[in-house]
Amino acid sequence: MQTKEVMPRGLNATISTLAEFARLSPTDALARLESSPEGIYQKEAEERLRIHGRNEVAHETGWDRIRHYFEHLRNDLMLPVIATAVFLILIGKTGAGWIISLVLLVSVLLSLVHSYRSGKELKKLCSKIGLTAKVHRRSHGEVLSAETDTGLAFRKIPLRLLVPGDLIALEVSDRVPADVRLIKSENLVLSQSLLSGSLLPVKKSADADTGDAENPFDVQNICLMGSAVVSGSAVGLVILTGTRTWLGVTRAWRRGEE
């Protein structure tokens, strides 16, 4: 994988990329993104930002969610149902036609409510991730600050400037700012409840994955954007940012953009 290539988009691409890095050792994961135990150089980070774009998950308004949902109605399953209801009404079987129409209307309204609530939860989650991230980058003669429990010195930068290959610090009360592969971990425990719905915290480690997990939530060395650090600390390698993260592609998939 060339770091100057833009990561592929889409839910399947994100799952595949996370699984690929999970199977690598920490050293191989760093090499895959042409990074190092001290991170990447500031100049390289600026170039990667130009290529990969900002680490942002765009928000949508309530009207956007409603518009996208009605776009979903134009599919091969919904149109025949509508056509059947209209046909029954035209041939005089108004009772059956209106019953089908009523059931269809209730289904649409329930789905709209669910879509609207999901969008609000996503917006709430994005607002909790924060505005800054603690990153370690190599820069000639630069004095870094914000010493952490991980042993490296990190500094805070705007969240939107994170790029693949960056090394970030994760500590108690932090929100994971991108999709990362753990490089070091000191008893790290995450809450993934706002992403997966599970209330049980999950222990993470930097060991290479065995490949038994069925989804990214269960992979021991992967931390997804939006997860919350419950206890412990870690150093993570940023793999995916912005709209290519699990959070980003899931949002797009719900909107039907992928």
How does this structure look, described?
- This protein is of the alpha+beta class and 258 residues long.
- The chain has 2 domains: 11-55 and 131-242, Calcium-transporting ATPase, cytoplasmic transduction domain A, CATH 2.70.150; 62-126.
- It contains 8 helices and 7 strands; from the N terminus they run H-H-H-H-H-H-E-E-E-E-H-E-E-E-H.
- Strands 1, 2, 3, 4, 5, 6 and 7 form a 7-stranded antiparallel sheet that branches.
- Helix 4 packs across helix 6 and helix 5 packs antiparallel against helix 6 (94-129).
Summarize the helices and strands and which ones pair or pack.
Elements: H1 11-23, H2 26-32, H3 42-52, H4 62-72, H5 78-90, H6 94-129, E1 132-136, E2 155-158, E3 167-170, E4 179-191, H7 193-196, E5 202-203, E6 222-223, E7 228-240, H8 246-255
Antiparallel strand pairs: 1-2, 1-3, 3-7, 4-5, 4-6, 4-7
Features of the shown structure:
single chain, 258 residues, alpha+beta, Calcium-transporting ATPase, cytoplasmic transduction domain A, 2 domains, seven-stranded antiparallel β-sheet, 7 strands, elongated
